[in-house]
């Protein structure tokens, strides 16, 4: 009942026009696991084009090796908000933590699994992953979730492979090229770079609609901005300002050319190959949310996906999916940026 009352208060706040109030918490510490990846491109656009500043915010972005590390920063109190995978809002409920997503960045995970060139010929299906050293951004991240899902689909468990945290950028590339890992689950543009150079062969992808249907049965809410429910309740104008900036970035992406995108991100994001970055961006271009809304159908699909491989979610007596997200702030943002 208390949760319902809080939700109604937040909704009433939006209707009363407080979306234009000054942020209560103008200096926001935002944690992200792999800002250089295309997975978090809307965040980069909002930051680079000054959209947070335009909303009266000073956003300090702290980049971590993976999404689970950024989540830990928020839970530990060193970050206010996370740009991270939606499924964490569900898994945190199993630990009694109320975490809520308030704006969506993309609807396909955009993560691929590649096998090292020396072993690619021996791979035919997920059961062949048994015994491999698999590189992921960080334990507990969405890159690990993809592999866990594949393992569960053939009766294997996470204990049947060895996990190696390799980050998301140049460290992931080096891990594959130096033979530290047998396979890599990562995002773009790293996977395109390693595939083009012949260092690995992509065997599973969730960058296309066909790929995400094959793996997960349909699209999922992928990258979001999320925070503790208490932070959202106590700082609604701040959350509204964050949402406004992100929705504006999503709208910009809908109209921008690939070259404009490449010109906007920091040069080091291109990994020294602009053409490759543009090709990787084209793979994901249609996966970015057009308006920031979090559809209930995608939330349900995320939950059903976790049920297949996440023991904690499977054993949880009750999970309230409606508490994992809100579209109240997006609806207000769309009035400002229709």
Radius of gyration: 19 Å
Please identify the structural class as seen in this structure.
alpha/beta
Number of strands: 10
Number of domain units = 2
The CATH architecture of the largest domain is 3-Layer(aba) Sandwich
- At the fourth CATH level, what is the homologous superfamily of the largest domain? Periplasmic binding protein-like II
| Tertiary shape | globular
Termini separation comes to 33 Å
Mean pLDDT: 93
Largest sheet entry: 5 strands, mixed
Q: Work out the strand percent.
A: 15-25%
In N-to-C order, the SSE pattern is HEHHEHEHEEEHEHEHEHEHHHHHHH
CATH class of the largest domain: Alpha Beta
The portion of residues assigned to helices is: 40-55%
What tags apply to this protein structure?
five-stranded mixed beta sheet, D-Maltodextrin-Binding Protein, domain 2, alpha/beta, globular, 16 helices, 44% helix, 2 domains
Question: Can you put this structure into words, describing what you see?
Answer:
The chain has 338 residues and is of the alpha/beta class. It has two domains: 2-108 and 220-336, Periplasmic binding protein-like II (D-Maltodextrin-Binding Protein, domain 2, 3-Layer(aba) Sandwich); 111-205, Periplasmic binding protein-like II (D-Maltodextrin-Binding Protein, domain 2, 3-Layer(aba) Sandwich). Helices cover 44% and strands 16% of the residues. It has a five-stranded mixed β-sheet. It has a five-stranded mixed β-sheet with strand order 7-6-8-5-9, sandwiched between helices. β6 (133-136), α6 (142-153) and β7 (162-165) form a beta-alpha-beta unit. α2 packs across α11. It starts with a helix and ends with a helix. Mean pLDDT is 93; it is low at 1-13.
